[in-house]
Amino acid sequence: MVDNFTHSYPQTASFIPRLILPSILQQYTLSLSMASTHQKIWWSVFLTLLLSNCQHEVDGAPQVPCYFIFGDSLSDSGNNNLLVTKAKANFKPYGIDFPLGPTGRFTNGRTIVDFISELLGFHGFIPSFVTATGKDVLQGVNYASGAAGIRDETGQHLGDRITLTRQLINYQLTVAQIATLLGGAAAAADQLSKCVFTVGIGSNDYINNYFLPNLYPTSKEFTPEQYATALIAQYSLQLKTLHVFGARKVALFGLGLIGCAPAELAAFSPPKGTCVDNINSAVQLFNDKLKSLVNDLNTEFTDSKFTYINIYGIGSGDPKAAGFKVTDSGCCGGRTGCAPSATPCSNRREYVFFDEFHPTEAVNVNLAARAYKSSTPSDVSPIDIHTLAHL
What we know:
Low-confidence stretches: 1-25, 54-58
Radius of gyration: 19 Å
Helix content: 40-55%
Shape: globular
Strand order of the largest sheet: 1-2-3-4-7
């Protein structure tokens, strides 16, 4: 089944050159001019980090030779485009603020991993697995898939998706390609040991599994504590597989405040101005166990460094104090994602969510900046992505 999936896509050139620096400066200057005071801080932080990286890397080389991305729709850059699934975003208004238009990214512009790749110094967007070809793979691949989960059944009611298990199989194919390109397994292992890997997955195991009791039995089989334990046990095995195939610098994104997503607010109707507490409590159980898993992995694999990115903590606080005026509905409307060709809101920098689940670019830039260079000790554990890259 995986082999058929793997070879069913047209292989097209994909490593698209990033906009030259003047264009980048123009885009971010526009973003600054239209942002709130607090948002200007984060756009300024991002721009400062980006310019600093350019100054320190005169030859234009990125900080690491490659960046590999695993996850779900928060990181997907087009792997779902040709799948038979409801989890797609390769149509307007998705991508309305992205330089290339709709590409399969579930937001109006850049995702968190797009921003991280820029901060790492890459001169293009990391290609999706379905479009990466030839030497493209030497600079990294994005395997993330909308609706994917740690558990294989997660999201199946939406149609096909590339589960984390399948993403790891696809990664193994890439490793074989890299070995061929570089002349052997030893050279591939050396290359991969220097790369950054990010994994952001688990949200769908709650949104599109545990909290859909009419479709999935997990909430009847597990308490929230037991479910988090079961997820982490499976995730641990998957991460160890990633290590077996060469990953040595790995950042794991914790889960965000899922109970504050517009879709969950509509489904569970908590008091106005609040979130769905039992969902967020379940997420915190997972995050606590994930943070402990990072410590265990660092103890077990002394040749590697794993780190935890506290997405929940970075996203906490009062969004309105951060310049966001709309927190309980998506910019493009709708209950099951943006409708094709729907007219989105014009004030996208004032919205936390672009659709009913996915954050806007204005949120993603903040998350990426603090994941890359932490601003408080609680943002990461034990190190940020910038430090990870330079180990």
